[in-house]
Amino acid sequence: MEDAAPVASRHETIQIGLRAILPAFAGGAVKRRRVPMALAERFQADRAAIRLLTRLRERHGPGPLRLRVPKRSVAVVLAPGDVGRLLRESPEPFTPDSVEKHAALGKFQPHGVLISRGPERAARRNWNEAVLEQHRPLHHLAPALLPVLNEEVDRLTETVDRRRELDWRRFDQAWQRTVRLLVFGEPAREDRELIAALDSLRRSGNWAYLGRPRTRARAAFAARLRRALAEAGPGTLAEAIRDEASNGAVHPEDQVAHWLFAFDAAGIAVARTLAVLAVHPGHRLAALNELAAEDPAEPAELPFLRACVLESLRLWPTTPLILRDSTAETRWGATRLPAGTSFVVYTPLFHRDPARPYADRFAPDIWLDGTAREDPSLVPFSGGPARCPGRNLALFCATGALARLLREREWRLTSPSPLYTGRPAPATLDHFGLAFRPEPARQPLLGAAPHGDANRHSTSRATGTHTSAASG
Ligand code: HEM
User: Fold this and answer.
1) Choice from 388, 402, 431 to test ligand 1 binding pocket (greatest atom count within 8 A of CB)
2) Residue 181 C-alpha to ligand 1 middle, in angstroms?
3) How far is CA 428 from CA 27, 38, 76, 98, in A?
């Protein structure tokens, strides 16, 4: 005997659309937008969406919950185990090449692996895994990439010292330059036009199928990218590409277009981790202690700092919506959903589930003690066969930049952000609004007991600054 899948009412469907799906798209699914991000933080948009979906899970059961959308089968995933299944069973029968993603990413990477299927997807996936060295915590090029990260952070710190403030605009300019150097090397150091061309296509991607086609602009961008790859120097990711065989299906320039886009998430994670460490002095001290035991000129895995980056991505996932379309009818308990169903995973629902003891707390240890590994729904880098193949490389670059920033200065959070010592982490954190004041770095105390610091530090909301008794 078959049960009918639970279906949201029309009102509930509209609520889900307005509170969970629309804000994620309005904030810019492909290229983040400043004003919607500021508004989302102001109204803590993610909190409202988490509450709504938690209520609907209580009302309708663990789902997946079908939405009332004309001419489409759309279901929101509500159970952690179902997130695990959806990701484990990708790309068949759950393809990452969803209708919406295809329209959005197709604007600048029509042959990107994430929007590919069948043998083409397999060839592109294998190529990405090989070049990005998905399974190695430290890429074989790490010794060449680390000096770039160190030098560019030093250059940034010098500028910031003169102006006494590090804001997002300055950080992002430096990060974009660093990414160009990591991927293409010196010839692309000042090639801002390459990124401007990509950004323009990404902005069109924000509109998915509503935007106009950009065929000529995309062809010009691809040609420019191929040139940059051909001219790239040694010790760059472009060199790794030249060393990797590829068949005609791969289109390396489209895979690299995805990388350039994805490196934005790593930059956002660096800024947010710096901010969260500014209000968690005990954790900052633990990170400094870890750094004190390493040679700054040698690539190192830095497990604790990595865990801090992962934790900032749990608290504020840069991919809040993971989408999969089913290629066949699928069974969910006693119910079935038709082929062509679009499954929506709203990751903050799981990352911040109020039932988790660490839901709104900065708890990097969950990435070290097995808690996160055992949970199939903590997925800042997605999971299963289509998980992010750049995870290790992104974490290496993010921790490398953070390590240098933390070694060189103490960063005080000066922006009126909702992050405060001893308070629950805000559900939404606008990275555009973050600003820091550099102060001379203090020596770490090797061997200090660093973690449970939260309530020992004070906060001043009146001045809009974020202070801590321990580090002040
Ligand atoms: C903090 C930084 C990053 C985060 C949080 C992140 C997260 C993700 C997520 C969630 C997905 C899956 C998307 C989906 O299923 O719809 C993904 C896919 C992917 N990412 Fe990343 N990513 C990051 C950085 C990078 C970097 C730096 C690269 C390359 C240099 C990269 C390469 C890729 C590729 C190629 C895919 C597509 C995988 C496939 O379709 O099989 N990512 N990433």
Assistant:
1) 388
2) 20
3) 11, 9, 21, 26
Ligand 1 center to residue 268 CA distance, Å? 14
Provide the pairing of β-strand 342-346 with 74-76.
parallel
Q: Which atom of ligand 1 is nearest to the CA of 379?
A: 10
Distance 232 CA to ligand 1 centre (A): 23
Ligand 1 atom closest to Cα of residue 323: 16
Q: Is 310 in the pocket of ligand 1 (CB under 6 A)?
A: no
If you take atom 32 of ligand 1, which residue's CA is the nearest one?
390
Full strand arrangement of the beta sheet holding 166-167: 166-167, 435-440, 409-413
Q: What is the pLDDT along the chain (472 residues), one digit of tens a residue?
A: 566 789 999 999 999 999 999 888 888 878 889 989 999 999 999 999 999 999 999 999 998 999 999 999 999 999 999 999 999 999 999 999 999 889 889 988 999 999 999 999 999 999 999 999 999 999 999 999 999 999 999 999 999 999 899 999 999 999 999 999 999 999 999 998 899 999 898 888 888 777 777 888 889 999 999 999 999 989 999 999 988 877 889 999 999 999 999 999 999 999 999 999 999 999 999 999 999 999 999 999 999 999 999 999 999 999 999 999 999 999 998 899 999 999 999 999 999 999 999 999 999 999 999 999 999 999 999 999 999 999 999 999 999 999 999 999 999 999 988 998 888 999 999 999 999 999 998 766 555 444 444 333 333 332 333 333 222 2
Distance (Å) from CA 450 to ligand 1 centroid: 32
| Shortest-distance atom of ligand 1 to CA 263 | 27
- Domains, in order of start, for the chain: 10-456 (1.10.630.10)
In order, the DSSP letters of 260-313 are HHHHHHHHHHHHHHHHHHHT-HHHHHHHHHHHHTS-TTS----HHHHHHHHHHH
DSSP H helices, 10-98, are: 10-16, 22-26, 34-42, 45-60, 80-88
Strand order in the sheet with 342-346: 65-66, 74-76, 342-346, 321-326, 94-95
The residue whose CA has the least distance to atom 17 of ligand 1 is 388
Q: Are 363 and 251 within 8 A, CB to CB? A: no
Helix (H, G, I), strand (E, B) or coil at 211: coil
Is the shortest distance between the CB of 114 and ligand 1 below 6 Å? yes
Residues with Cβ within 8 Å of 449's Cβ and at least 6 positions away in sequence, in order, are none
Give the nearest ligand 1 atom to 113 CA.
Answer: 40
C-alpha–C-alpha distance, residues 49 and 190, integer Å? 41
Q: Is 131 in the pocket of ligand 1 (CB under 6 A)?
A: no
Cβ contact 406:153 at 8 Å: no
Residue 78 carries which DSSP code?
-
